[in-house]
Specification:
Elements: E1 11-16, H1 20-32, E2 36-43, H2 49-55, E3 60-63, H3 65-69, E4 76-79, H4 86-95, E5 99-103, H5 110-123, E6 127-130, H6 137-148, E7 154-164, H7 181-201, E8 212-220, E9 223-232, E10 238-244, E11 246-257, E12 260-265, E13 273-279, E14 282-288, H8 293-307, H9 315-332
Parallel strand pairs: 1-2, 1-4, 2-3, 4-5, 5-6, 7-10
Antiparallel strand pairs: 7-11, 8-9, 9-10, 11-12, 12-13, 13-14
Helix pairs in contact: 1-8, 4-5, 5-9, 7-9
């Protein structure tokens, strides 16, 4: 793989597939980041060529994912493929010396995630799971409140991410492609809870792991369409995670401690808003500025490559998330 010169200091990105999240969010974000260049997109569907060229003029279009991976002019790839394909294409990308930003959930099982991490480490390339919400001002402010001690000892966390899925043809409803609400949106509350647990326990990222699991779900067509879980951590903190495709949108979290409560509306979103901190009888609203979460994610991952450092979102958390999702699916039966 060739590397950008010190003069350009820009990572040349390729994208595997023209998925909606790629074309609506990540590809424009690559173009907004000042240390990245959107160089090429690969598709297996020739009918998409005109749409790609119309929306992203000047970006090369490659027919076939392998051809893009073999291109020495590509430094990093973004993988927005169906969940069932994440492992194989990440490992193929690593074998060609490409750094990989892989869409969440990183894999269908913890074993697959471990394979991906091992392959990337062996090849000396960076790997990160695309939890873009970790790059928002909202998340930064949540962490500031947690680390300030204003909430006291954390006793309970609840986090929900659900929406009404109106597209019956969606890959989110296809079990063979890794569909299901826990994989698609439930992975966010699980990650959020783990982030809080780490801070509450004073652990390294990914270090606080639940020691008890319970879960219930309803399935339709082979995938879970609503999923609720309770996690217990060794510290005594309990957490409730909820997700689903079958009801009105709800994105909300709260953290309850011995001294206070923090309410986090729109936990995983970009929009401006407020956090509400209650301590005793006092209520304080903390303003949340709008964020450009996708561009911030691309900026950090590109900088990690250029500076030969780890990105801000660590693989230890990715591996824990995959392990917890495995355990919850087993618990739900």
């Amino acid at each position: 793989m060739t590397h950008p010169s010190a003069a350009t200091r820009k990572i040349r990105w390729g994208v595997l597939g023209f998925a909606r999240i790629a074309r609506e969010h990540v590809m424009p974000a690559i173009q907004r980041a000042d240390n990245a260049v959107l160089s090429a997109v690969a598709t297996r569907d020739g009918s998409k060529l005109s749409e790609v060229r119309a929306r992203f003029p000047g970006v090369r279009v490659v027919i076939g994912y392998d051809d893009l991976l073999q291109d020495p002019e590509i430094d990093a790839v973004y993988v927005p493929l169906p969940n069932s394909l994440h492992r194989d294409w990440t490992i193929r990308a690593a074998s060609q010396g490409k750094h990989v930003l892989c869409e969440k959930p990183i894999a269908s099982t913890a074993d697959e995630a471990a394979d991906m991490v091992a392959a990337c480490r062996k090849q000396g390339v960076k790997l990160m799971e695309a939890f873009m919400y970790r790059y928002t001002h909202r998340t930064r402010l949540v962490l500031e409140v947690l680390k300030s001690g204003a909430l006291g000892e954390i006793k309970f966390v609840q986090s929900s991410f659900r929406f009404l899925l109106s597209r019956p043809e969606s890959i989110k409803l296809r079990p063979e492609l890794g569909g299901g609400s826990l994989y698609d949106v439930g992975c966010y509350p699980i990650n959020f809870i783990g982030m809080v647990a780490d801070v509450a326990a004073g652990a390294q990222p990914g270090g606080a792991k639940p020691d008890s699991f319970s879960a219930e779900c309803l399935r339709q067509g082979g995938v879970d369409t609503i999923f609720s879980a309770v996690l217990r951590f060794p510290s005594g903190m309990l957490a409730s995670a909820n997700c689903g495709f079958n009801a009105h949108q709800r994105v909300f979290s709260e953290i309850v401690g011995t001294k206070g409560v923090l309410e986090i509306p729109d936990t995983f979103h970009n929009e401006p808003g407020v956090l509400t901190l209650t301590t005793g009888t006092a209520r304080k609203e903390i303003p949340v500025p709008e964020s450009d979460r996708y561009a911030a994610e691309i900026q950090d991952f590109s900088a990690a490559i250029l500076e030969n450092r780890d990105p801000k979102f660590p693989l230890a958390e990715t591996l824990r998330n995959a392990e917890v999702i495995d355990r919850l699916l087993a618990a739900a039966g």
